[in-house]
Amino acid sequence: MIPLTADPYAPDGDEARRWAEEELQNPRYADAKPTWFDYLAEDVAEFINGLFSPDTGQQVGSTALVIVAVVIVAALITVLILWGRPRAARRVKRRGVDLLGERDDRTAAQLRAEAERRARDGDWDTATVLRFRALARGLLERDIIDPAPGATAQAIAREAASALAAHHVELTAAAGTFDQVRYLRHPATEQSYRDLAATDDLVSTTRPVAGREPAAVTS
């Protein structure tokens, strides 16, 4: 009988181990791993099922089971509240990001108030710039937009229009007014400011279309 020869392409033990380690380092395996919350939910579900099993029911009374169940539900609610806090913290942090070329942590309400003060003084240029920044800040605070760093007024208007389609024309016009004053140095007028302020008021009370995600716009 002719002896079989070893496959020249088959890896030896060390080589096979190295291939396996490299494959397991692929990000798709890390993404597929359950989170700590998944493990916690699984453990809690198993514990609750165990509490209401026939064997456990014979050992403890129904009142005790109800008390334990209520405690577990309260604990889960607490975890969910804490789980949602990073989103709120992210909103606060995002207030200080660069928006329309300015790093300013004032809220939309504060920017509107300042714009109105400048308007009363007849400083329509500054009032216009502040009012559009208030409009953009308000959209950001409501999670309607998530603009990339350096996003322009037109980019913000397009992103907002993806969720507020009914006001696409007004948003585009407001961005154009901002650009005319801020970059092209065309003087604003009382009427142009009032139109922008009306758009801001309109947008701030409009609910976004359900299920629409902010568009990824960079310029």
UniProtKB/TrEMBL annotation:
Keyword flag Transmembrane helix: yes
Keyword Transmembrane in annotation: yes
Keywords: Membrane, Transmembrane, Transmembrane helix
Sequence ranges assigned to domain Protein-glutamine gamma-glutamyltransferase-like C-terminal in this UniProt record: 131-199
InterPro entries per the UniProt record, alphabetical: TgpA-like_C
Transmembrane segments: 64-84
Protein's name according to its UniProt entry: Protein-glutamine gamma-glutamyltransferase-like C-terminal domain-containing protein
Organism from which the protein derives: Microbacterium aerolatum
